[in-house]
Design brief:
The structure is a single chain. It is built from ten helices and no strands. With 205 residues, it is mainly α. The termini are far apart.
Length: 205
């Protein structure tokens, strides 16, 4: 992180360095957890992010960025708030199924949940700088859409957790069955059949 902040981060890491990065940020499961075959693959995204922050840090100071026009800073603030909400909601939605390190987001969600005012302010400035000087950040509309989807995902997850308390659904909606069910479209239909059988009070094969 220090090398990134001082403009000295090298995104071309060897396998050992990449392993250290994955362990340090707790993103290993982003390469294995999946929904319908899709994975987050946070290692490449994290490298791009750190490289972009490093590049901006080489030529621009926090004081300079803090003097951006008010509308730019407000948009960055809203993006930062939504991004942190996304991390928390998506992690809370998926961790009951994919366990503590779900999708490699445990550390990020933890930091978002416990972030201080100073940390949040720094995040806002980083987003504002990347928005102006880099192409490495998605637009505000995409961030807002992701935040909305994560919130919807959390609501659905909470509904599933309530159903899991009912004896007839405990087997069909076990974390293991849910993980298998989300692995592919075929396995998803198998999961739906198990749930339907549970509704009818039958044992699925």
């Amino acid at each position: 992180m220090l090398s990134s902040a001082t403009g000295q981060f090298n995104p071309r890491l060897d396998d050992q360095d990449t392993s250290i990065l994955e362990a340090g940020f707790g993103i290993g499961q982003s390469n294995t957890d999946q929904v319908f075959g899709n994975r987050l693959l946070l290692d490449a995204a994290l490298l791009d992010w750190l490289a972009a922050v490093s590049s901006v840090g080489e030529t621009h100071t926090l004081v300079e960025i803090s003097n951006f026009p008010e509308d730019e800073l407000k948009r960055a603030r809203d993006d930062a708030r939504t991004a942190m909400g996304f991390l928390i909601d998506f992690y809370d939605a998926t961790s009951p199924v994919f366990e503590k390190k779900a999708f490699g987001l445990h550390q990020a969600a933890l930091h978002a949940r416990k972030s201080t005012a100073n940390t949040q302010a720094l995040f806002v400035l980083v987003i504002a700088a990347l928005r102006r000087y880099s192409n490495s950040i998605v637009d505000s509309e995409t961030i807002a859409d992701l935040g909305k989807k994560a919130s919807e995902c959390l609501k659905a997850s909470e509904q599933v957790q309530k159903l899991q308390q009912a004896p007839e659904f405990q087997s069909a909606l076990s974390a293991r069955n849910l993980r298998r069910g989300f692995a592919s479209h075929d396995s998803y239909w198998d999961l739906l059949r198990k749930i339907e059988a549970a509704k009818l009070g039958k044992e699925s094969v």
